[in-house]
Automatic annotation (TrEMBL):
InterPro entries: Cation_efflux (IPR002524), Cation_efflux_CTD (IPR027470), Cation_efflux_CTD_sf (IPR036837), Cation_efflux_TM (IPR058533), Cation_efflux_TMD_sf (IPR027469), CDF_Transporter (IPR050291). The keyword Translocase does not apply. GO terms for molecular function: monoatomic cation transmembrane transporter activity. It is found in: Membrane. The chain crosses the membrane at residues 16-37, 85-106, 118-135, 161-181, 187-204. Residues 18-212 form the Cation efflux protein transmembrane domain. This is Cation-efflux pump. Pfam families: Cation_efflux (PF01545), ZT_dimer (PF16916). It is a multi-pass membrane protein.
Length: 295
């Protein structure tokens, strides 16, 4: 019996996004229904946030599909930039949702309305639990496959959990405080909109850095230099540039070798370095090496 083929990083990311979409479809229905029946705008705002989760998760899923395509004549470096672009769309959608929630919250604060029903607290408690579990699962997969888009959408789920938690607190205050505290859940929704904007920046910053070819976080540069220097006849690393594109990394190296070596010998050294780096760093798609005389 043949051993089943393990899914690629892109496939794992896509499967995770589809799971998140399915969960959010159910949550939108539950939140909107409970919010309408329970007189809670905070819960309705929460439903709106989950609706944006569905849209952004779909964008991320599409982005991952595009990013997983092989290089072609028009895109010799692949389609990896689609992945951080999808993450940027998530951050922009979060800001849009936060603005809409804030505007409606202010309107409801200024408009008298009934106190939310007590049963909405049970709904919110369940939602917070589901969203936190979903965040942890998606963030784990995002870290394992090194996907900024999947991690961005995971934080979108976390922001939804925070929105639900603030709604829970607001409704609790409204129920305990009684008359005069009816708008507590609206204030909670307003506070949640600020938290959502903060999470949007948390998503935007690394995604924008990746699009701008920012050096990846961690010890990538030091580790690649160490691998290069471990190869025989490499006397120094004059320059090491690393950039991330989607699920893969591209490396540019300037290596110093004995200036008396022939072109053929220098070429062979470059190939050994490239093979060593790709063997120890499977996420590296390509290594471009320039040979320089050490003296």
């Amino acid at each position: 019996m043949e051993k089943p083929i393990a899914p690629t990083n892109a496939q794992r990311g896509q499967q995770t996004m589809l799971m998140g979409i399915a969960v959010n479809v159910v949550l939108v229905i539950v939140k909107a229904t409970a919010g309408w029946l329970g007189n809670s705008y905070a819960l309705i705002a929460d439903a709106l946030e989950s609706a944006t989760d569905i849209v952004t998760s779909t964008f991320v899923w599409l982005g991952l599909r595009v990013a997983s395509r092989k290089p072609d004549e028009n895109h010799p470096y692949g389609h990896g930039k689609a992945e951080p672009l999808a993450a940027l769309l998530v951050s922009l959608a979060l800001v849009a949702a936060a603005i809409l929630i804030a505007v409606e919250s202010v309107h409801n604060i200024r408009t008298p309305h009934e106190t939310p029903k007590a049963f909405t607290l049970l709904v919110l408690a369940g939602i917070v639990l589901v969203k936190e579990v979903l965040f942890r699962k998606m963030n784990q997969v995002g870290s394992e496959v090194d996907s900024s888009a999947v991690k961005a959408d995971a934080w979108h789920q976390r922001s939804d959990a925070i929105t639900s938690l603030t709604a829970f607190v607001g409704i609790s205050i409204a129920l305990i405080g009684g008359p005069g505290y009816e708008s507590a859940d609206d204030w909670a929704a307003l506070l949640a909109s600020l938290v959502i904007v903060f999470n949007a920046y948390h998503i935007f910053r690394p995604s924008f850095g990746e699009i701008m070819d920012e050096s990846p976080a961690g010890a990538w540069k030091a580790e690649i230099e160490a691998i290069a220097l471990s190869v025989a006849q490499v006397e120094g690393v004059e320059k090491c540039l690393v950039r991330k594109t989607g699920f893969e990394y591209f490396v540019d190296l300037h290596l110093e070798v004995d200036g008396n070596l022939t072109v053929r010998e220098g070429h062979a050294i470059a190939h050994r370095v490239k093979e060593a780096i790709r063997a120890q760093k499977p996420a590296v798609y390509d290594v471009l090496i320039h040979i320089e005389p050490s003296s």
